[in-house]
UniProtKB/TrEMBL annotation:
<dbReference type="InterPro" id="IPR038648">
    <property type="entry name" value="PHR_sf"/>
</dbReference>
<dbReference type="InterPro" id="IPR029071">
    <property type="entry name" value="Ubiquitin-like_domsf"/>
</dbReference>
<protein>
    <recommendedName>
        <fullName>PHR domain-containing protein</fullName>
    </recommendedName>
</protein>
<dbReference type="InterPro" id="IPR012983">
    <property type="entry name" value="PHR"/>
</dbReference>
<feature type="domain" description="PHR">
    <location>
        <begin position="239"/>
        <end position="397"/>
    </location>
</feature>
<dbReference type="Pfam" id="PF08005">
    <property type="entry name" value="PHR"/>
</dbReference>
Length: 399
């Protein structure tokens, strides 16, 4: 069948076409999971542009062509090689325990059926151990090699200066995470952080080494002109003139929070915290949630729930029993545009702390930037509001 006949047949639209070589012959091929190159149709150079532009072609391949190509991939399997499976995640191949032979000369060759003995791979998880204090051990499982995956799908949500976009990437498990970050960094001229399970990923790791599963969602955060912004001074907005000297705040179930709006663009970098009133300074845990809406109520930054561990000393605490905490997950902060509503919610690991009930006239406090911030109460807060609470201020930079 000539290429003209193939093109003229309106049978199937191939959404993604690539140009490659198969058996030393030029062909058009498409990616289908475990199969690296599948012949679709031969082409000549004059038609190359049409093929790249997603021309309509027919799928004329025979089943035995596909099986032969699968065999080329499976022949590369060996002991200690790591592959992905839907049932067990990443596994390491130990040895073949069953293999069905077939004759490629048969008119209808049977499906390849090879079973492997594999070891599941246990990735370290913080603060998770068994009841007896031991860590989870690897298991031996049997897997049909037709269930092996060498490529996975990764969903990304990218937030750069509040411009949010979602993408789907098809990647090899042996690729570095950096492979899908570099293009965005060049495009937006910014540094991008990759967040997974409330922690920043090392972008030099492969998807396999980072235990990224098929269909996993990753969060990308970036800020433009990072170098210039890093040179700007960090400021602290104080919203209480004094603390309550007679009582202490007892945390109840639920989060404390406030709403912040500003007349100009700023970067939200951290929070002020009252120290614990019933224990010495030291390590503590904090969980916080940040989300942003514009003036029309449209969500610009979806709620981001983050858990972090911090610490403070006597030297960090001022005369109001306040210390400043800079976000670890967002070291370059979160950009908030003028007029947008930033809702911040938090809870800390200590039960009792100092607090203040003198927030009604916060606009009269002498701050570095006067009359640009407005604090509001949120009905989601369990106790903290404009007048009182355990959030004495926040860290920021002006843009």
């Amino acid at each position: 069948m000539e290429i003209k006949e193939i093109i003229n047949q309106d049978i199937q639209i191939i959404s993604t076409l690539k140009i490659g070589n198969f058996s030393k012959l030029p062909i058009a091929w498409r990616d289908e999971g475990n199969i690296d190159q599948l012949p679709v149709a031969r082409y000549n150079e004059t038609l190359e542009k049409e093929i790249i532009n997603k021309i309509k072609i027919t799928n004329w391949r025979r089943d035995d062509d596909i099986l032969i190509q699968k065999m080329l991939n499976f022949q590369q399997l060996r002991s200690n090689k790591v592959v992905y499976t839907d049932e067990y995640g990443y596994v390491k191949l130990d040895k073949r325990i069953q293999q069905d032979k077939y004759d490629t000369q048969q008119l209808n060759p049977p499906k390849i059926n090879t079973t492997w003995s594999c070891s599941t791979i246990q990735y370290p998880v913080e603060n998770q151990t068994n009841i007896d204090g031991s860590t989870q051990k690897s298991k031996i499982v049997s897997v049909d090699q037709n269930d092996f995956k060498f490529m996975i799908t990764v969903n990304t949500v990218c937030v750069i200066d509040q411009e949010e976009s979602e993408q789907i990437h098809r990647v090899k498990i042996s690729d570095q995470i950096l492979s899908i970050v570099e293009q965005l960094q060049k495009l937006h001229e910014c540094k991008i952080k990759v967040i997974y399970n409330n922690r920043e990923l090392d972008q030099r790791k492969t998807f396999r080494a980072a235990n990224i599963k098929d269909g996993q969602k990753l969060l990308f955060f970036g800020i433009k002109d990072k170098c210039n912004q890093d040179q700007k001074p960090i400021r602290f907005f104080l919203r209480f003139p004094d603390f309550n000297k007679e009582q202490q705040w007892k945390s109840v179930e639920g989060d404390d929070g406030i709403i912040i709006t500003c007349k100009v663009d700023f970067i939200f970098l951290g929070i002020g915290l009252f120290e614990a009133s019933n224990q010495d300074p030291g390590e503590f845990g904090i969980q916080y949630t940040i989300y942003i809406k514009d003036k029309q109520g449209n969500v610009k930054l979806k709620p981001q729930v983050v858990k972090e561990n911090g610490s403070y000393t006597y030297d960090d605490v001022d005369e109001m029993h306040v210390f400043k905490y800079k976000f670890q997950t967002f070291p370059h902060g979160i950009v908030v545009k003028a007029g947008q509503r930033l809702t911040y919610m938090q809870r800390t690991s200590y039960q009792y702390s100092f607090y203040s009930d003198q927030g009604r006239y916060y606009q009269q406090i002498r701050n570095p930037d006067m009359n640009i911030f407005k604090i509001k109460s949120t009905r989601l807060s369990s106790g903290t509001c404009v007048e009182q609470g355990i959030i004495p201020g926040f860290l920021y930079k002006l843009l």
